[in-house]
């Protein structure tokens, strides 16, 4: 008798697996990880201390309602408490957003290429992805995205700045787009990298959400705040969207370590801002060096740079790895390199220079 396997949902059949940034090789003379858009700085002493204190009671469940963190966020961003929801990283909140809005037969629109979790979480919900190609300048094509809306559209992601191309959507074009989106379609402004933006034509999503109930702002503590390993992100949205997010959250998903570290980080913003400034300065240095070498590099407003290398992507990534830095290749398209330690960035630039000369 042949045993039958458990019945799994057909929607899972072709779900692409999330590819994490490759770790740096262990044991090599030099090995820097520039593949996951992490913050290269170690935790601040005060933040580390808050985590150590919280660790003393991890035999207990965390505060389910994230009370302290929610209060801190409400005052920091001047939003009502019931407009906030937290989750296990902003990718967790993004999944809650899709689960709250879309199921079989529904459509989720996003630019492509963009954050690779969007297709995964859409498909897991049983909904259909509608990918709208980026423009030739690696930017969101908001007119085409608005044209792609149908009566099945439930959610639209706008990744600002866009991962992996580092480009931004500016205020006027975003407002025009939001005005075109029907009020019963949720627009999620994914602002995972907002702290790295220095172009003042780019809006802060919180300004846009205030008088637009169909706009939700997604933020994370993983990038500028340096808490990637602790998994905490949040959304700001009007009711009933925020209430739906609280319903779809995994109970106790955000650990007490993460909650306390996030509060400590919000209270250490000056020190964190200095680090972000240093990374922005490094970003400028890296981009200018690449342009000096002859590369076309989008104006990055994030903590990474993008090179469209096409068929040469895999070779370029392999050359980086041999030299001691791991970048993030998207085979056949291009590669994304996170701005890391100066030494790592220098190694990356040397590989890029050599590669450019060979083209
Ligand atoms: C655009 C974007 N959104 C969300 C995330 C998720 O980050 P986290 O789940 O660590 O908050 C990432 C991470 O790379 C990202 O690039």
TrEMBL record:
Describe the reaction catalysed, as an equation. an aromatic L-alpha-amino acid + 2-oxoglutarate = an aromatic oxo-acid + L-glutamate
Q: Report the EC number(s), separated by commas if there are several.
A: 2.6.1.57
EC main group: transferase
UniProt key word Transferase: yes
Record keywords, A-Z? Aminotransferase, Pyridoxal phosphate, Transferase
PTM-bearing positions, type N6-(pyridoxal phosphate)lysine: 223
Q: Which GO terms describe its molecular function?
A: histidinol-phosphate transaminase activity
Q: Where is this region: Disordered?
A: 1-20
* Basic and acidic residues: bias regions: 1-12
Task: Name the InterPro entries on file.
Answer: Aminotrans_II_pyridoxalP_BS (IPR001917), Aminotransferase_I/II_large (IPR004839), ArAT (IPR024892), HisP_aminotrans (IPR005861), HistidinolP_aminotransfase (IPR050106), PyrdxlP-dep_Trfase (IPR015424), PyrdxlP-dep_Trfase_major (IPR015421), PyrdxlP-dep_Trfase_small (IPR015422)
User: What does the record give as cofactor?
Assistant: pyridoxal 5'-phosphate
Q: Where does the Aminotransferase class I/classII large domain lie? A: 33-343
Q: How does it assemble?
A: Homodimer.
The record's comment on protein family reads: Belongs to the class-II pyridoxal-phosphate-dependent aminotransferase family.
Name the job this protein performs.
Aminotransferase that catalyzes the conversion of aromatic amino acids and 2-oxoglutarate into corresponding aromatic oxo acids and L-glutamate.
| Record's protein name | Aromatic amino acid aminotransferase
What organism is the protein native to? Streptomyces coffeae
Gene name of this polypeptide: hisC
């Amino acid at each position: 008798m042949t045993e039958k396997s458990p019945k799994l949902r057909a929607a899972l059949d072709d779900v692409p697996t999330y590819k994490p940034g490759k770790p740096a090789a262990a044991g090599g003379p030099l090995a820097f990880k520039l593949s996951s858009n992490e913050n290269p700085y170690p935790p601040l002493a005060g933040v580390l201390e808050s985590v150590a204190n919280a660790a003393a009671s991890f035999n207990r469940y965390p505060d389910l309602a994230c009370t302290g963190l929610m209060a801190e966020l409400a005052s920091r961003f001047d939003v009502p408490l019931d407009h906030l929801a937290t989750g296990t990283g902003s990718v967790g909140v993004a999944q809650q957003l899709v689960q709250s809005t879309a199921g079989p037969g529904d459509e989720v629109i996003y630019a492509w290429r963009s954050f690779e979790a969007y297709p995964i979480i859409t498909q897991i919900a049983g909904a259909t992805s509608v990918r709208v190609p980026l423009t030739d300048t690696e930017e969101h094509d908001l007119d085409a995205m608005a044209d792609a809306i149908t009566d099945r559209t439930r959610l639209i992601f706008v990744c600002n700045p866009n991962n992996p191309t580092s480009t931004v959507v500016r205020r006027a074009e975003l407002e025009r787009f939001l005005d075109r989106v029907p009020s019963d379609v949720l627009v999620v402004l994914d602002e995972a990298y907002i702290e790295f933006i220095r172009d003042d034509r780019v809006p802060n999503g919180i300004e846009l959400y205030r008088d637009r109930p169909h706009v939700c702002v997604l933020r994370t503590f993983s990038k500028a705040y340096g808490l990637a390993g602790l998994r905490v992100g949040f959304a700001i949205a009007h009711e009933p969207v925020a209430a739906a997010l609280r319903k779809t959250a995994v109970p106790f998903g955000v650990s007490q370590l993460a909650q306390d570290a996030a509060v400590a980080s919000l209270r250490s913003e000056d020190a964190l801002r200095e680090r972000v400034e240093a990374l922005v300065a490094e970003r400028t240095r890296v981009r200018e060096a690449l342009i000096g070498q002859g590369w076309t590099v989008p104006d990055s407003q994030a903590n990474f740079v993008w090179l469209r290398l096409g068929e040469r992507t895999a070779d370029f990534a392999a050359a980086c790895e041999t030299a001691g830095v791991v970048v993030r290749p998207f085979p056949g398209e291009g590669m994304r390199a996170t701005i890391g330690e100066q030494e790592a960035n220098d190694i990356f630039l040397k590989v890029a220079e050599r590669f450019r000369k060979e083209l």
